[in-house]
Amino acid sequence: MAYDYDLFVIGAGSGGVRASRIAAGHGARVGICEDFRVGGTCVIRGCVPKKLLVYGSKFTHEFEDAAAYGWTLAPPTHSWATLRDNVAKEVDRLNGVYIRLLENAGVKLHMGRGRLMDRHTIAIGEETVTAEKILIATGGAPVVPEIRGREFAITSNEAFHLPELPKRVTIVGGGYIAVEFAGIFNGLGAHVDLVLRRDRVLRGFDEECRTAVHESLKESGIKMRTEMQIECIESKDGKAPFTVNTQLGGMFETDLVMYATGREPNTRGIGLEKAGVQVDKAGAIAVDEWSKTTADNIWAVGDVTDRINLTPVALMEGHCFADTEFGKKPRKADHRDVPSAVFCQPELANVGLTEEEARMRLGELKIFTSAFRPMKYTVSGRQQRTFMKLIVEAATDKVVGVHMVGDDAAELVQGLAVAVKAGATKAQFDATVGIHPTAGEEFVTMRTARVEPAPSRKAAE
Predict the structure, then answer these.
(1) Which domains are seen in the chain, by residue range?
(2) Residue-wise pLDDT tens digits, 366-401
(3) Which residues are catalytic?
(4) What is the pTM of this model?
(5) CA distance 356 to 359
């Protein structure tokens, strides 16, 4: 059968765009569809605009520090509208860049929501196309739980377009999106309540780093409402102020409620069942190590598969798929030692295993830590501290985990991720000369391992 395309991609986010461009570069006839804007969550409503908001919110602290360095400033004021609109302009620019990337690669863009009609047929609005191979890269979307008054809440999608900055903001959640936006709104001058079900933020990250971030958020003025759940949100006229009612009978007022309690894969209503594509219990598309679904000619990459939901991972998966299927260069995506960062204030970044994971998987460990006040703040008086951690497998001397909470953590750990990926040892870290004075030199000057408590008699037995 003659198909319209060799490959058709449903979803023009990071993974879909990368896969389509690489496949086209290998000579394939490629089409792609998107129902909103090209660029996906990261470019349009995620990491890019969010990082710009983080930059904007950090100036508050820079102004505070400037006085100790001799700068005299009039009391600064902030225009939310200016920041919001300038961020939107940059998103518009990037959307155009992505469209041109597709055009220059020879990929045909179809605007509209793609739906599988069978294993080789895709409907986009009133249009229908066929393809020999199909890639699903529809990403994920934020979820708001089914509570009374949920219609009064927003998600991170709407946070970029607020008409004005609320004076009081309540963020529900303890993950990376929640803590990042807590820092943004706090830095811009809002009173922030962070509501989380557990005792600390960032479940799944290294425990010491979680504690360091949690305490820093609290010290910055964010009210940490731990071990709390929201029962309902009420409003007299559908507008602010809102009354937040908790499950234990408490209540408080706020001007904005933002939910950041999780995301779900975008698999509903795209015809997966018609093509024999199975999903798991969480609704994510089930794939093998080659990103192939349960349908022989259909693959999936990115957040819709719920493996590691990071933009660079989607790019890697999409690139591997295109090289394998169209470039005669078969290769699997390597999900080991993927670095990541949380752009809270201060930042958290890591690569490799947490201490808890290492203790479960490996034998004896050597743990090296360093906590200090950055040089910049010794003059300004700010109390923010930096925490660094190296996890070393004792038997091999390999550094199996690098963790940092502090300014520019992501920039530092990105470089160290190369060392971890290459299997660097602690001896090689120690043999590396530091750049002085920097925070980064601490990673090559930690010489004394943490003293581990002796195993209890009960554990030994």
Answers:
(1) 5-141+264-326 (3.50.50.60), 150-261 (3.50.50.60), 346-448 (3.30.390.30)
(2) 999 999 999 999 999 999 999 999 999 999 999 999
(3) 436
(4) 0.95
(5) 5
